[in-house]
């Protein structure tokens, strides 16, 4: 089996180790003899190349880099939405989902109109409002996910389900206990860390979904030895700060 993974603006959008998520996806596929091709989805990418993707990843970015990417990303909005509407999964961290909602208001008060794929809006209230920084624990269905957040923007969901519930940390806004959002098989989250190394169950959920959509059948992934990954997960789960 083969997978093509599209990576949104790798040179602009990969804060706090987010590129580590790509390495996890590559390794977990390789260990199972699934061939992986990574393509950047950025200024040079054609719609046809985007259509060939089986999974999309987008990492975090500072306001400035988000501002540099958004005009080009908007041109790709309808192609990406078509992909997601036929079930292609995605993982979007922090700055990326802010651009996939209706808009992101930067710390300087500049409104970046987003793709509107996730029914939500994000606002940075300026330097006087403290950033959300720290290790996080969330509940994802009956499981836990751990991460690290560092964002000035706050996200408010409209008619869209959160990805998870906050156990520790701010999550979307520090007010309503929601964390991230879900559109079809796409996950938005504020979790850096990077996220997937300590959450192998989320990595495999994404890989299985990508294969299911591509090959049109239910996929049982071969189990891997994840003892180190779960040790890291457990450590973060019980860490005091
Ligand atoms: N610039 C955005 C914010 O501060 C996103 C930051 C990030 O991706 N870590 O909210």
TrEMBL record:
UniProt superkingdom: Bacteria
SUPFAM superfamilies, alphabetized: Class I glutamine amidotransferase-like
Active site: 94 (nucleophile), 192
Catalytic activities: beta-D-GlcNAc-(1->4)-Mur2Ac(oyl-L-Ala-gamma-D-Glu-L-Lys-D-Ala-D-Ala)-di-trans,octa-cis-undecaprenyl diphosphate + L-glutamine + ATP + H2O = beta-D-GlcNAc-(1->4)-Mur2Ac(oyl-L-Ala-D-isoglutaminyl-L-Lys-D-Ala-D-Ala)-di-trans,octa-cis-undecaprenyl diphosphate + L-glutamate + ADP + phosphate + H(+); L-glutamine + H2O = L-glutamate + NH4(+)
A molecular-function term among this protein's GO annotations: carbon-nitrogen ligase activity on lipid II
Pathway(s) served: Cell wall biogenesis; peptidoglycan biosynthesis
Cross-referenced InterPro entries: Class_I_gatase-like (IPR029062), CobQ_GATase1 (IPR033949), GATase_3 (IPR011698), Lipid_II_synth_GatD (IPR043702)
PANTHER family named among the record's database cross-references: DETHIOBIOTIN SYNTHETASE, LIPID II ISOGLUTAMINYL SYNTHASE (GLUTAMINE-HYDROLYZING) SUBUNIT GATD
Function: The lipid II isoglutaminyl synthase complex catalyzes the formation of alpha-D-isoglutamine in the cell wall lipid II stem peptide. The GatD subunit catalyzes the hydrolysis of glutamine to glutamate and ammonia. The resulting ammonia molecule is channeled to the active site of MurT.
Family statement drawn from the similarity comment of this UniProt entry: Belongs to the CobB/CobQ family. GatD subfamily.
Subunit structure: Forms a heterodimer with MurT.
Protein name listed in UniProt: Lipid II isoglutaminyl synthase (glutamine-hydrolyzing) subunit GatD
Organism from which the protein derives: Candidatus Gottesmanbacteria bacterium RIFOXYB1_FULL_47_11
